[in-house]
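#onboarding

Welcome to the new folks! Below is a worked example of what a typical request in this channel looks like: someone posts a single protein sequence, and someone else replies with the predicted structure as tokens. Don't worry about understanding the tokens yet, we'll cover that in week two.

Example request:
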Amino acid sequence: MSEILEPGASLYSRLRALTPARVGLGRTGASLETRDLLDFRRAHAQARDAVHASLDAGALAASVAEIAGGPVLRLHSAAADRATYLQRPDLGRKLDETSRAALHPGEWELALVVADGLSSLAVERHAAPLLQELLPRLEGWTLAPITVVEQGRVAIADEIASILRARISVILIGERPGLSSPDSLGAYITWAPRPGRTDAERNCISNIRAEGLSYAQAAAQLRFYLTEARRRQLTGIALKEDSHQLKEG
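Example response:
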């Protein structure tokens, strides 16, 4: 922040102190300076690697189980591998037969799902720490066994929660990588989840990572949405956050 306040600092240098976006890049003739070009290529490579990287589902499930103090189920979407997942989004939205058979109905208020999405790096870095902040805030809720899904997309939580007969689902999932954020985690909340739900019927909390929304802030927002969803029996565009109720972070 000292760079922002420094009287002699240029406009571009002050802007760069406020954002990781690429602003005020230097030029050499008609081209970018070498350092900026190399930085762009590095960021692009990180984003590409994040999309193609495989999730270490075993290690993640073990970490989550230790935090939750209960069973964690490992599931898989109908996309058999990463290449299929990227080419067939529809297969990432539903479970394979083995995973479907592993789920058993109950009477649960909440199903928590963790899926790799488009950045397994985000999930491996941030899902367990976020759950560590979130679970103590869910005292009194009846929770289904947490599930960890490989090659999953947001809508796969609809099928999982529907089979489990959970009233609400939350899926923690790796978001599409950007050039400044290859490890951004998102959380999607859905009331009465079932296959066919649309994104307009969900609430989303995004950019959960060290440089974005903190675990405590994200956990506070999640508890707000879950509490309001249960009270009002809805999620999506009809449910908005109240900033006064999110200060506890």
